[in-house]
Specification:
mainly alpha; 11 helices; 69% helix; binds fe (ii) ion
Length: 286
């Protein structure tokens, strides 16, 4: 059985949050820009059901590590963290829906795809799909925490949600991966298959909902915003283009998520999150 490679300065503990998203939040809460706000918003719509899929996939095999107390605790932490993420993204999605954006439609599209995966593939392949999608959340989290441009351009009321989520995705990034290795040994081909599928489906649904959000907001032909957003995502040092080397590492046969050694980021951002939560309290009291 795999022994935990989680660094000693990391503990996978769920923190219950209760974010509120008020009418006072600016219309374009990311980069003060329609494209970027809707890109981040569209991503959020996939999270609630995505995280429930991850929980189910991991829970199915949790007895595999019943003799390893540390790994059991990590799995319990993973399940708790993902459950809280799911709930908080649901709040953000409801907030966007109230503003007239097709957030619940995005969530339904994700659920339809995930239910198709549930029907079509056995639990082991679903765990492999979870490992692949968790790689996405891990490298995106690493990007957000190591390049503060994003956090510096997001409204104070919404920033802590993404900070908290990125921190915890980093903390538990190897949990599904290690479990998969125990269940399936080294089935590299299956991981490659699920990663290619996950990439294609994620890219297609994100692009579709980006367009739908922009259209519903009357911004479909705002070329300035498209140019700005596409450059932010795919330009030099872009949010997505900057992920490519980390993304490709997944295809190496001996890759492990903690090869990207970034546990020190967690300590730094946990402290910053405390500051942001205090700011939120002040905002609420005002
Ligand atoms: Fe999550
Ligand atoms: Fe996760």
């Amino acid at each position: 059985m795999t022994t935990s490679k989680t660094p000693s300065n990391i503990s996978i503990k769920p923190y219950r949050m209760d974010f509120e998203f008020s009418d006072a939040i600016p219309r374009y809460w990311a980069y003060n820009d329609p494209f970027m706000t809707h890109f981040v918003g569209a991503l959020s719509t996939f999270f609630p059901d995505g995280e429930r899929f991850f929980i189910d996939s991991v829970r199915h095999f949790r007895d595999t590590v019943k003799d390893d107390k540390v790994r059991q605790q990590e799995i319990a932490g993973f399940i708790g963290q993902e459950a809280h993420h799911s709930k908080e993204h649901e709040s953000l999605n409801n907030f966007m829906e109230k503003r007239g954006l097709p957030a619940l439609s995005g969530a339904n599209a994700a659920l339809t795809l995930l239910n198709w995966g549930r029907r079509k593939f056995p639990p082991r392949t679903r765990l492999a799909a979870t490992v692949s999608l968790e790689h996405f959340t891990a490298i995106l989290a690493n990007r957000l925490l190591s390049h503060p441009d994003f956090m510096n351009h997001i409204d104070d009321s919404i920033k802590p949600l993404w900070m908290w989520h990125a921190i915890e995705e980093t903390e538990h990034k190897a949990v599904a991966f290690d479990l998969y290795k125990d269940v399936k040994g080294n089935n590299h081909k299956e991981l490659v298959f699920t990663m290619v599928m996950a990439t294609a489906l994620l890219a297609a649904t994100t692009a579709l909902y980006q367009v739908r959000f922009m259209a519903k907001d009357g911004q479909l032909f705002n070329l300035k915003s498209w140019a700005f957003g596409l450059n932010k995502l795919f330009g030099r040092q872009g949010l997505i283009s900057g992920l490519i080397p980390d993304y490709l590492d997944f295809f190496k046969e001996d890759f492990h998520p903690w090869d990207h050694a970034n546990s020190e980021l967690v300590e730094y951002w946990r402290a910053r999150l405390d500051v942001e939560m205090d700011k939120l309290k002040l905002l609420k009291a005002a």
